[in-house]
Every structure is written in structure tokens, then in C-alpha cells.
Amino acid sequence: METEMKIRMAGLPALAGGLSIALLVAACGPSPIESGGKSAFGGGASDEALQAVYAQVEGLTGTARTDRLVQLAKEDGGQVGWYYVGKMDPLVKAFEEQTGLKISGYQGVSEDLAERAGQEFRTNQQGSDLVLGAAVDLRTMDGEGILGELKSPALDDVDEGFKGYNAIAPYANVMVLSYNKDLVPPDKQPTSYEDLFRNPPSGMGVETGDWQWYENLVRKYFMEQKGMSEQQAIDLITNGLRSAQQVEGHSLLVELLASGQYGATPNSFAHSIEPLVKAQSPVTYAASKGDTPPFLLTNAMALTRGGPNPAGGLVLLEWLMSPDGGQKIFADMNYGTTSNKYTGPTVVDQYSNAIVADLYLTDTPDDVRNWQVKYQELLQSIGGRPAS
């Protein structure tokens, strides 16, 4: 059946009740978890230790729950294995200072983190307690039985679009259309995505891994908002990016934009652009200007089945969702926050036209592969060797 679901980003009142998507709730197949808490996909990892932690903190709330989880985590050695994407140093430092626990961190791209956690799971040598990566990768991990069951009060503090498949989204990347204003002054900047691709600025850079941005641009902007067919939208974007250059990595993309290599980038992250704006670099973003809405693309986190310190993984997850802990730091880092308990300012406040993109909830594995292929076809039409 179809359920109409309203989604609101914390700190973005204009979105409350203003955005909705149709969530297709599909019939579920057999559970990948056998009796006894072991996965039916092989590997000896079970979540019995995690279930024991849940039993220890049942009925506890607030500080009492956190203190008990920290105590249990210290009894398990005091070290928490965290695999994550992005630069999470401020969060690691604050968590260690506030809890006395130590993070054993491993940073990488989402696909690599999922592969590493999967290999460890299958050999019963799990090194992570918590994995933070692309929501679509965590959904795949859950389907393979790699994730532990998530039971946390934090689930009650987020809207439906930010949880599912034993995972919860602690923040959203805010993807914006950005310019080098020395090359594309304000009076020359397109006022809509249609204008951008029909009359592209001279010199654009596009990041090579952003198939989810492409899917959402086609489906949620051009098709849902503008009434185009999928092929019409793809043709428009393809023609507009024919003279663009591919770039591997968002950090490099923004650096090249600031240096004057490009006049515009359609898929930059606000958390990369904002520090340059504050440093008076010649970059700007037009997400709140005209009809060029930003896309809020969530990353998600989940406990790993058979993690060495399940209490540590759980207290880290709940700390990342707490308004006085991780949520405030995510906001300071120019990410969109997801907990409804966080009421402070965020970078999302200025974007009344933002599009929440959570298609990972409804995309099938075939959908994912299909859009990955379509994005590669777009990049092939651009041609050339990516800057890296």
C-alpha cells in the first residue's frame, strides 16, 4: 500500500507540513535473522550481546540511561569501533571528552566501509560497533543480516524519512548549486535548474559519484515539480553538462571552483562551501535564490551485528542524536540536523525550498543499479579524464 509521509528537517519550520513523498511499503520477504540472533547469510556473528545491553538499560531514560551505557561500555574495554564517512574529528573529540570512552575510528568511502564490515561479519571478526555511511549502503547491509537490531529512544525523535532498516540518519548533506562569483556574477547566475542546463555557465565541474543527486534532480525536481518525463529531464541535463569536467571528490570540486577552474558546480556540499564563504573566497551558492532548491541527502548509521562493544556503539549512536551532543556539532559543521529535539540554528534554515531526498526507503536494489548506470552514462557523455 502507499502511505503519504510528511518529512521535516529539524531547524527548518518552513518544511513542516510542506513537503511530502509517497512511501511505498513493500511486502517483506523472509527475515535474514534466524532464531538465536544469528544471520541466515553465513558468519557466526550474533546480536546476543546487544540484546543483553538492551535488557540492562530497559526502562532507563535520559542521563541514567547514558551513564549506564557508558559504564557497560567501559566494562567491555572502553573502546568503541566506529566506521564513518566524512571528517568527523570534532565529533570524535567531543564524544571522548564527554564520556571518557575512546573511539577506534576508520574513515573511508561508504562502499568500502560496507564491504569491510561485511567481510568482518562473515569471518566473525567484526571490528566496528557503529557504521555511518550512505543510507542505501546500510539498507543493503541490513538485508544481508550485517546490522544489529536498533531499539533506541532516538528513533522517536526523528521523522519517518530518517529511519528504517535498523538504521537512523543523524544528519543530512546539503547539496547546493555553487558559483565562482568572479566568473559568474550574481546578475548572470541562472534562476532555475532549467535555465542552468539550457544556458550553462562557461566551465562547470561535476562530481563523479553523485548518482543519488542525479536521481533526485531528475525525479523529485524535473519530474515531480516541473512535469517533465524522465527522458526529457535526462536530455536537458546531458546537453547542459556536455562541456563540463568530471571531478573525483567534493573537496577537490570546491577547491577548483574557488581557484577559478570552474564557474559553477551543480552538486557541491554546503559544509564545504560555507567555510570558504566566511573566508571571503569568491564562491557563493544559490540554493535560496530563485528556483534552484538544494537537496538534503541523508547519511545513516547503524549498529553492527557482533560488534565487540555493543554498549559503546549504542551510547555513541544516541550521543550523535542528542541535541546537546552530536546534533549541535553537526549544525556547527553546516550539516542539516534530523532530531526534532534539536531546536538551534542550522544551515538549512535559509532554504525554504529544500527538497528532502530519501529515495533509499523506496528504491529497490534494481532501482539503485539502474540510476548508477544512468549516471555513468551521463558522465560518459561528458567524457574526458576526471580531475583527482
TrEMBL record:
Pfam family, one: SBP_bac_8
This protein's UniProt keywords: Signal
PROSITE patterns documented for this protein: PROKAR_LIPOPROTEIN
Database matches in SUPFAM superfamilies: Periplasmic binding protein-like II
InterPro entries: SBP (IPR006059)
Record protein name field: Extracellular solute-binding protein
